[in-house]
Write a structure and sequence with these properties.
Elements lengths: L1 H16 L22 E3 L2 E3 L9 H11 L10 H15 L4 E5 L5 H9 L10 E5 L14 H4 L7 H8 L5 E5 L14 E6 L4 H12 L2 E9 L8 H14 L4 E2 L5 E4 L2
Parallel strand pairs: 3-4, 3-6, 4-5, 6-7
Antiparallel strand pairs: 1-2, 7-9, 8-9
């Protein structure tokens, strides 16, 4: 009996020394009104957050000019376009020229040029690189072949007319990476890649990486879109090899910042 009582006391003391488990967290109920005041709803993006850039007269005019090129097949992509404008504006403060690979009819470049007043940036060039007749057969990927095979036609003459007012715009016609040496920029302050294919985009990223000024932005237009998952995997690997990371945006774009 004595031993039993002593054992019981030791067990009780041990239990008292053990910390009690914390009480369960209260259930959090988030109130959501039946009709949410969406500030932006389009191009795969739906948000309640501030987007007052949509009312900025400079952006509105830049967007109008980009849309009028017919590059976006009738879709409105304002938030994506704003990201392009933001990256281009950052390039104003950096050494080097602008480069876009995958121009099509020039919507992104045209809106960016207006937004940054490129006509008066006489110390910079804007290189516009594309086949201007669609995606080469060897660059089509099985995941998106049906989507892209007949999507783009010949648009070279249209692009020449669109950018004729800009003396410092340089149109480079041909297949990437073969034509990249025609881009004479020693430094690059902004790089946009929108070729709908992993191989030429990675080739362009490798070609320009050492030329990118510190702080320059590389805009990956297709990074987050499911038909272009091969590009996402390729750029994730590219970024790791360079010691950086891709910033994935809800617009479907990805951004890489040059250290």
């Amino acid at each position: 009996m004595g031993m039993g009582a002593s054992l019981a006391r030791r067990i009780v003391r041990r239990i008292r020394r053990e910390p009690r488990p914390p009480p369960p967290l209260p259930t959090v109920v988030v109130y959501a009104p039946p009709e949410l005041p969406w500030t932006y709803y389009g191009d795969g993006l739906k948000t309640l957050h501030n987007c007052d850039f949509l009312e900025d007269p400079l952006f509105r005019e830049a967007y109008r000019l980009g849309r009028e090129t017919g590059s976006w097949h009738g879709y409105d992509i304002e938030w994506r376009a704003y990201v392009v404008c933001w990256a281009a504006a950052k390039g104003r403060t950096l050494e080097g020229d602008y480069v876009e690979c995958g121009v099509n009819k020039g919507g992104y470049s045209r809106l960016a040029m207006h937004y940054i007043d490129f006509a008066n940036l006489t110390d910079k060039k804007f290189y516009l690189v594309d086949t201007y007749c669609g995606i080469p057969e060897e660059c089509l990927e099985e995941e998106n072949r049906a989507l892209l095979e007949n999507r783009y036609g010949d648009c070279y003459d249209e692009v020449v007319r669109t950018f004729a007012p800009f003396e410092n715009a340089v149109i480079v016609r041909g297949v990437v990476p073969d034509v990249l040496p025609q881009v004479r920029a020693e430094r690059v302050c902004y790089l946009s890649l929108d070729m709908n294919s992993a191989a030429p985009e990675i080739a362009a990223a490798e070609f320009f990486w050492d030329k990118l000024s510190s702080g320059a932005v590389m805009v990956l237009d297709d990074y987050g879109f499911s038909p272009f998952i091969r590009q996402k995997h390729a750029f994730d690997a590219f970024a790791r090899a360079k010691g950086v990371a891709v910033l994935s945006l809800p617009t479907g774009q990805g951004l890489i910042f040059k250290p």
